[in-house]
Specification:
Layout (H helix, E strand, L loop, with lengths): L11 E2 L2 E2 L14 H12 L4 E5 L4 E5 L3 H15 L9 E2 L9 E3 L2 E3 L6 H14 L6 E11 L2 E7 L5 H17 L8 H5 L12 H10 L10 H14 L5 E5 L4 E3 H8 L4 H4 L15 H8 L6 E14 L5 H9 L3 E8 L2 E9 L2 E5 L5 E2 L4 H6 L10 E4 L4 E10 L2 H13 L1 H4 L4 E3 L28
Parallel strand pairs: 4-9, 8-16, 10-12, 11-19
Antiparallel strand pairs: 1-2, 3-4, 5-17, 6-7, 6-14, 8-9, 12-18, 13-14, 13-18, 14-15, 15-17
Bound molecules: zinc ion.
Zinc ion (ZN) binds next to helix 10.
Length: about 450
């Protein structure tokens, strides 16, 4: 139940809780910039120029009126059942239709009535947390030369951030066993106007600067994984850690050292039988590694390329396979420069939650309670894999070691399906470790300079 007088969020797992003062909302009435920017949204499609006398710098408050408006019109149009313009398809629940898979769960019309299957599916779909663009929050400032540009909305650039928040929310739903419709406590963690909210777009923008991203910049799926990873380090969730595997191989020594909280080098030190430089580890060290007990759950993120540009047909079945692994928490993917939270598929099309709808940010706990419906989506659509972007990031949640070992078994038993895209190895090869010196190879910073042979 929700107690409006409580001062902390009580999301508990065993003995720990996350503490957030949930009365500490950004004061909308006293904050000039915010008040101005919400006025802009309602009334004025023009940018406003101000002067910050404290910082002695001009500020341009970006009016997102037009981009919010056009985004929402586009979103509403795409809700229309026949949508050839946007390439979306409806999920088919008619007799004889193919099964729908959502987060490794199968919805199939076989012995049941189509409406029953569709009802079960839509109930489950609505339990997922849907995060969209929001407007009407304290502007995020971007310094451009002698100017500050202030964004009080993320319409047009924040879609991957929103998809990342959805993936994180799904992970926390599993982690806290709160997979119910009431998700108020989790939603507090991402509130734009709640100053203590650890995973709000403001917090993401703050870690984004370390990743070379300013407010107004679009995030790639892999940058967003790094942002999630940094956020979970800065604002830890009890008994949860995260790890990104950029080489698409999950190295158990790295994973286990985080999950088990051990220094792997100390743990396996001074073995005369191992030849690390040759990638050889003795049986005893392997056993030792595999005996590490986990005391944390893990969110593992794996950025991947499934072809160049759009997803290559060769990988369609592999992508379906990834969404069928029980530990999946979905995929950050989408269309070029337009991120979608991919949660399943039917035939060769992907099921997703779409962040491209601009909604007003909540201004208080009561406002959040009133707007809880805006965090659940009742429209389920499909995008053909042929029009989906090949750059994606997989997310998997391992509650414990057993859960990871099940994943490892599935991976090792289905090499053909996986086509070598991801894998699990016990030890990190020397060339992947930090002390390894990169040979002098000419590299290019610009993607455009790559020549594809
Ligand atoms: Zn050894």
């Amino acid at each position: 139940m929700i107690d409006n007088n409580q001062s902390t969020i009580e999301l508990s797992i065993e003995d720990s809780i996350i503490e957030i003062n949930n009365n500490n909302y950004e004061e909308t009435k006293t904050h000039d910039l915010q008040m101005l920017s919400s006025q802009i949204f309602r009334n004025d499609p023009k940018d406003i120029s101000l002067y910050d006398s404290e910082k002695e710098i001009p500020i341009t408050i970006r009016s997102d009126w037009f981009s919010n408006f056009s985004t929402n019109v586009r979103y509403q149009i795409s809700e229309v059942p026949i949508m050839p313009i946007f390439g979306y398809e409806k999920v088919d629940f008619s007799i004889g239709s193919s099964p729908v898979i959502m987060l490794a769960k199968k919805y199939q019309i076989k012995d049941e009535l189509p409406e029953n299957v569709q009802y079960k599916f839509s109930q489950d779909f609505r339990k997922l947390i849907w995060v969209t663009y929001r407007y009407g929050y304290k502007p995020l400032e971007r310094i451009e030369g002698e100017n500050i540009i202030a964004y009080s909305s993320d319409t047009g650039w924040g879609c991957t951030v929103r998809v990342g928040q959805m993936l994180l929310m799904r992970t926390l739903q599993l982690h806290f066993y709160t997979e119910s419709y009431e998700c108020y406590q989790l939603l507090q963690l991402i509130q734009e106007n709640l100053l203590d909210a650890p995973y709000s777009i403001q917090q993401i923008a703050a870690v984004g600067t370390e990743l070379g991203k300013k407010p107004g910049d679009w995030y790639s799926p892999s940058t967003m994984c790094h942002a999630i990873d940094k956020l979970l380090t800065l604002h830890p969730i009890p008994k949860l850690k995260s790890k990104i595997f950029m080489e698409t191989i999950i190295y158990k020594d790295q994973l286990y050292s985080v999950a088990g909280d051990v220094d792997i080098d100390d743990f396996l030190s001074n073995c005369v039988l191992c030849k690390k430089s040759e990638g050889y580890y003795c049986e005893k060290c392997r056993e030792k590694l595999n005996s590490i007990e986990w005391n944390k759950s893990m969110l593992v993120m794996i950025p991947l390329m499934l072809g160049l540009g759009s997803i290559h047909q060769e990988y369609y079945e592999t992508l379906k396979f990834f969404l069928n692994i029980p530990q999946t928490v979905g995929i950050i993917g989408g269309k070029p420069k337009s991120a979608l939270y991919i949660v399943g598929y039917q035939n060769d099309s992907l099921l997703f939650l779409d962040p491209h709808l601009a909604q007003q940010a909540c201004t208080s706990d009561q406002d959040l309670l009133n707007k809880i419906e805006t965090y659940h989506c009742s429209s389920y659509k499909l995008i053909p894999m042929s029009s989906a972007e090949s750059s994606i990031s997989l997310g998997y949640y391992f509650r414990n070691k057993e859960s990871f070992l099940e994943f490892e078994r599935i991976i090792s038993e289905n090499r053909d399906a996986i086509k070598g895209l991801i894998g699990v190895q016990e030890f990190t090869p020397q060339y992947c470790t930090e002390d390894f010196e990169v040979p002098d190879i000419k590299t290019s910073d610009s993607d455009e300079e790559y020549v594809v042979l």
